[in-house]
Write a structure and sequence with these properties.
Distance between the termini: 36 Å
Number of helices: 5
Order of helices and strands: EHEHHHEEH
CATH architecture: 3-Layer(aba) Sandwich
InterPro entries: Glutathione_peroxidase (IPR000889), GPX_AS (IPR029759), Thioredoxin-like_sf (IPR036249)
CATH topology: Glutaredoxin
CATH superfamily: Glutaredoxin
Family: Belongs to the glutathione peroxidase family.
Pfam families: GSHPx (PF00255)
Structural class: alpha+beta
GO molecular function, one term: peroxidase activity
Number of domains: 1
Protein name: Glutathione peroxidase
Length: 160
């Protein structure tokens, strides 16, 4: 099991491997996403945030069907939905599980204190946010309702 976020290598929504070490030196916002959720319109907020801050922050979307079966589609359907409806260009990973026995290694790292150093907070619904700093350390967790314009969220990223 990895003890560094940057050792993890999830699959992109198109099936290619993503080496998270490529994001060293940037802050990372990890979102568990869903296409049929009340929070789904946040895709637009996160896309706008990514466009405005992509020189120093990367947003990683991880579609998951763990809450209310609100992400029933295939990777291809999810990618098309995100592009057509929200113009998403931030990196989207393949559909995973963020909870339970099938929990993806990225979410194991984000939610197990023995791996990330302090946090055991699991996602409570779709669009929970985890912030990883430039050195690969988990620094913050935010609930689903938090959007990029939230003052505490911006402070956590050092953005005004």
């Amino acid at each position: 099991m990895s003890t560094s976020f940057f050792d993890l290598k999830p699959k992109a929504i198109n099936g290619s491997t993503v080496d998270l070490s490529a994001y060293k030196g940037k802050k990372i916002v990890v979102l568990n996403t869903a296409s049929e959720c009340g929070y789904t319109p946040q895709y637009a907020d996160w896309q706008e945030f990514y466009e405005a801050n992509k020189d120093k922050v990367v947003v990683l979307g991880f579609p998951a069907n763990d809450f209310g079966a609100q992400e029933p589609g295939s990777n291809e359907a999810i990618a098309q939905f995100c592009q057509v409806n929200f113009g998403v260009t931030f990196p989207m990973m393949e559909k995973i599980s963020v909870l339970g026995e099938e929990q993806h290694p990225v979410y194991q790292w984000l939610t197990k204190k023995e791996l990330n150093g302090w946090n055991s907070q699991q996602p409570t619904w779709n669009f929970c946010k985890y912030i990883v700093d430039e050195q690969g350390r988990l620094t913050h967790f935010f609930q689903s309702s938090v959007t990029p314009d939230n003052s505490a969220f911006k402070a956590a990223l050092g953005i005004k």
